[in-house]
């Protein structure tokens, strides 16, 4: 199976690098600057499971010649429109697009641009980031990639994709509940991002502050309530574990959006927080705490733009 990984940042670089290391036919679609860096230094991954460097196959926009069997889309959500334009020549009648972006707005965008038949549901869970040298740094031991047909069916194409992704150095999982799991991840990211970015601290620091634990629990409940109304309801076990994890004193856990904010980088505020608020507003649901967090993030984005 010919795989095109769109992006070679912390997510695309890690999963694509592992696939290349396992001998899969992988090509990376990257920007010229990242292409030059990878050509000079190789794709370097620093991991608890062992460091490695590979020489990746690369293309930049305009260099794609014909369709791929599957496209793994790993860019930041705010880069989605440009990425869809760049990868368009890689899409044929049988091509699958497996996105691992945050939120759910990309689902609508992919369906609108290429048709519902191209879309495969997906999500990943990995604590990773690029360092100043462009190396992918895996900061924890979990590296999950889940995928499945959005309608929960077991098709021949998803079975073939599963075979290509399994046994490649990360935890790959075919699931019939991918849409619910995507909404659950969005629930976690919106609540965690709201807590950390508004309070400018780790989960544990917020929980230890006077009233902090109650605040965090209230944000979780607010987000869960909205998702139940506008999306796929999360399981009760997920809700319980999320509330416990996000109110835990001593936890050093933070959201990637908060880490980006601390670096002065672009953040996925509109895709993770703003889009959920928009859907809730359309359903007549008030989300005062998450609205406050979003206003705070918008101020940050305005200052950064200026």
UniProtKB/TrEMBL annotation:
Gene Ontology MF, one: 2-dehydropantoate 2-reductase activity
Pathway: Cofactor biosynthesis; (R)-pantothenate biosynthesis; (R)-pantoate from 3-methyl-2-oxobutanoate: step 2/2
InterPro entries in alphabetical order: 6-PGluconate_DH-like_C_sf, 6PGD_dom2, ApbA, KPA_reductase, KPR-Related, KPR_N, NAD(P)-bd_dom_sf
GO cellular component terms, A-Z: cytoplasm
One Pfam entry name: ApbA_C
EC number: 1.1.1.169
Keywords: NADP, Oxidoreductase, Pantothenate biosynthesis
Domain Ketopantoate reductase N-terminal: residue ranges: 4-151
Catalytic activity line of the entry: (R)-pantoate + NADP(+) = 2-dehydropantoate + NADPH + H(+)
Taxonomic superkingdom: Bacteria
Record flagged with keyword NADP: yes
Tagged with keyword Oxidoreductase: yes
Ketopantoate reductase C-terminal domain mapped to chain residues: 178-297
Single GO BP term: pantothenate biosynthetic process
Family: Belongs to the ketopantoate reductase family.
Physiological role: Catalyzes the NADPH-dependent reduction of ketopantoate into pantoic acid.
Protein name: 2-dehydropantoate 2-reductase
């Amino acid at each position: 199976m010919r795989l095109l990984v769109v992006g070679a940042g912390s997510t695309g670089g890690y999963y694509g690098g592992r696939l290349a290391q396992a001998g899969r036919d992988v090509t990376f679609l990257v920007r010229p600057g990242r292409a030059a860096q990878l050509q000079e230094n190789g794709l370097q991954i620093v991991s608890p499971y062992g460091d490695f460097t590979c020489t990746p196959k690369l293309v930049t926009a305009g260099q794609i010649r014909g369709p791929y069997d599957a496209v793994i889309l790993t860019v930041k959500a705010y880069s989605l429109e440009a990425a869809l334009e760049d990868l368009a020549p890689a899409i044929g009648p049988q091509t699958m697009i497996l996105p691992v972006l945050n939120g759910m707005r990309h689902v609508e965008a992919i369906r609108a641009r290429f048709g519902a038949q191209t879309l495969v549901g997906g999500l990943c869970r990995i604590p990773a980031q690029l360092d100043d040298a462009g190396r992918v740094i895996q900061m924890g031991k979990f590296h999950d990639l889940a995928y499945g047909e959005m309608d929960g069916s077991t098709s021949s194409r998803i079975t073939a994709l599963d075979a290509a992704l399994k046994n490649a150095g990360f935890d790959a999982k075919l699931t019939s509940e991918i849409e619910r799991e995507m909404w659950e991840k969005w629930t976690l990211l919106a609540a965690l991002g709201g807590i950390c970015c508004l309070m400018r601290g780790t989960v544990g620091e917020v929980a230890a502050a006077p009233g902090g634990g109650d605040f965090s629990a209230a944000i979780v409940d607010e987000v869960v309530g909205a998702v139940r109304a506008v999306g796929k309801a999360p399981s009760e076990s997920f809700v319980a574990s999320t509330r416990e994890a996000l109110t835990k004193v001593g936890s050093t856990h933070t959201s990637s959006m908060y880490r980006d904010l601390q670096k002065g980088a672009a953040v996925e505020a509109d895709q993770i927080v703003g889009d959920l608020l928009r859907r809730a507003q359309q359903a007549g649901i008030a989300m005062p705490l998450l609205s406050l967090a979003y206003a705070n993030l918008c101020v940050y984005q305005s200052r950064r733009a200026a």
